[in-house]
Amino acid sequence: MTDLPIILLAAGASSRMRGTDKLLEIVDGQPLLRRQAARARGVTTGPVLVALPPPPHPRYAALSGLDVKPIPVPDASEGMNASLRQAFAALPPDAPAAMLMLADLPELTERDLNVVAQAVDLTSETLIWRGSTEDDKPGHPIVFTAALFPAFANLTGDGGGREVVAQAGTRVQLVPLPGQHARLDLDTPEDWAAWRAGR
User: Fold this and answer.
1) Whole-angstrom Cα distance, residue 68 to residue 184?
2) CA–centroid distance for 117 within its chain
């Protein structure tokens, strides 16, 4: 699916960073948010929707010049499900599926996104295709078929869409990605320091 819409979740408060913004941490010479948005843009001709805190916010400047659509989330403080409600509602009405990814997974590569996108088979019974770690732990990105889109409209709290994944039951296909690419997030200054030391 070369025109798969991609939703990038980037509206969280970064509260565990003690005053700095993890999505604006510099990785490979650019803010992490811009780097991950560019990776999403590189794998699809479809729209890239970025869920963001309400403006004004420095994250908007980090995306300047990129062909992505900011989706302000007025109630972002509620939790991740507020972002999912807003972003899924903003998808093109004819989209047969959409990819969801978190902005704070620094090891997730363009190749990883492509591997998951290429696993999608809309003629199958599968409803979700999901990146996993090398030891089979489910992570991101996640592709949802359009049959599941309505389920996002009523989500509340900070479940991160787990309720929708549960609805799919056994109709979920894990797509192995290298190492811990699918799950490694960096939430604290100590996480960032350890990750940088290991690069």
Assistant:
1) 24
2) 13
Q: Which amino acid would we find at residue 31?
A: P
Q: Are 102 and 14 in contact (CB under 8 A)?
A: no
Residues 6+ away with beta carbon under 8 Å from 175: 115, 116, 119, 129, 130, 131, 132
Residue 39 has pLDDT above 80, yes or no: yes
Domains, the chain: 6-198 (3.90.550.10)
Among 139, 107, 100, residue whose Cα is nearest residue 27:
107
Greatest Cα pair distance in the chain = 47
Q: At residue 160, does pLDDT exceed 90? A: no
pLDDT digits (tens, 9 = 90+) for 113-133: 999 999 999 999 999 999 999
Give the pTM: 0.97
DSSP string, the chain: -TT--EEEE-----GGGTTS-GGGSEETTEEHHHHHHHHHHHH-SS-EEEEEPSSS-HHHHHTTTSS-EEEE-TTGGG-HHHHHHHHHHTS-TT-SEEEEEETT-TT--HHHHHHHHHH--TTSS--EEEEE-TT--EEEEEEEEGGGGGGGGG--TT-TTHHHHHHTTT-EEEEE-STTTTT----SHHHHHHHHHH-
Residue type for 121, please? D
